[in-house]
Amino acid sequence: MILIVDHREITVSYENNTLCVRREGGKLQRIPVALLEQVIVYGSPTIEMPVWRALSTAAVPTTLLSQRGSQEPAIMAAGLAVRLPLRRLQFRCAEHTGCAVAVARWFLQQKFAAYDLPLSHFNAEQRQPFKQQRAELLDKLNQADSIAKLMGYEGVLAAAWFALLAHGLPDKWRFNGRNRRPPQDPFNALLSLGYTLLMADIRQVLVCEGLDPAFGFLHQPVAGREALVLDFAEIFRAAVDFSLYAFLGCLNPKDFSYSQAHGCRLTKDARPTFYNFWAEFREQCPRLSADDEGDITFSSLAEQIRGKVAGFRGILNNQEQDNG
């Protein structure tokens, strides 16, 4: 289950493997830590120190969101696992220029392929120009000899992708392409929130597998940024985009608030609808490709992330063997 804590008046304490959640003047709610899959905290409720220790020990990813979007989200979970050989392999490949470019290319190959899923739900006239551009960029991608070139090709295709989505959304959503920090329209607000929660799940799997979430390939290590989490997020953005694109039809413009300082955000009343959607998405995430008839299969988000981590491990091993 996902626990949402979004009221300043809430106090969360820990007792006998259970979180005790109490809102001022309300009933006490007891939630066994073993049942928790994710915790999301808005603003500044009172959360006692043993709660954080229990969540970390149980490897429950926790996302801290600013009440008004004035601060960057923070992701908390368990520390690095003790599986050192894989982490050392990660570092060796990242420090070898040829290996690093090949692994970064692998991430974008996975991302480019993942567009097949949402494209299957556009008509042929809409999707054909994008597919043609993707094919041309994929050829360039496979010949690129630097991270900068790879990122440039990714940026071109991402812009084309969001232009395709903008063409399909009604004018009432005011979506003209990707924007953030802060998001300026409802779809961008959902994308930013969805990507943040996606990265919490990715980070947890990476740490449990023994990988360093801060040491990336496509995204270069920068202080305060978990680059490998961002690398893996690229693979799953299409699934998030596709699902949120459909989910937007369950909402109305009045479900969002606007301000010059904080941009566009879901209202508190609309958040439960979103988190019900997100809980279902995590359990029944559309797989990253559709069959020839356009049919979609589903599996849990965590399972799919672990599958991509297995592929990542394989490409690391292959690169080390090829480059001695």
Describe this structure in words.
This protein is an alpha/beta fold and 324 residues long. It folds into two domains: 2-60, CRISPR-associated endonuclease Cas1, N-terminal domain (Ribosomal Protein L15, Chain: K, domain 2), CATH 3.100.10.20; 84-323, Up-down Bundle (Four Helix Bundle (Hemerythrin (Met), subunit A)), CATH 1.20.120. Helix content is 51%, strand content 15%. It has helices at 49-57, 84-95, 97-114, 116-119, 124-143, 147-168, 186-209, 227-247, 271-283, 301-323; strands spanning 2-5, 10-15, 18-23, 28-32, 38-42, 46-47, 62-65, 74-76, 256-259, 263-266, 285-286, 298-299. The protein has a four-stranded mixed sheet with strand order 1-5-7-8, covered by helices on one side. It has a four-stranded mixed sheet with strand order 4-3-2-6. A two-stranded antiparallel ribbon has the order 9-10. Helix 7 (186-209) packs across helix 8. The longest helix has 24 residues, at 186-209. It starts with a strand and ends with a helix.
Given the structure, what is the number of helices? 10
CATH T-level topology of the largest domain: Four Helix Bundle (Hemerythrin (Met), subunit A)
Please state the structural category.
alpha/beta
- Residue fraction in strands: 5-15%
CATH class of the largest domain: Mainly Alpha
Main sheet overview: 4 strands, mixed
SSE pattern, N- to C-terminal: EEEEEEHEEHHHHHHHEEHEEH
Radius of gyration: 20 Å
CATH-derived architecture of the largest domain:
Up-down Bundle
In total, the number of domains comes to 2
Under CATH, the homologous superfamily of the largest domain reads CRISPR-associated endonuclease Cas1, C-terminal domain
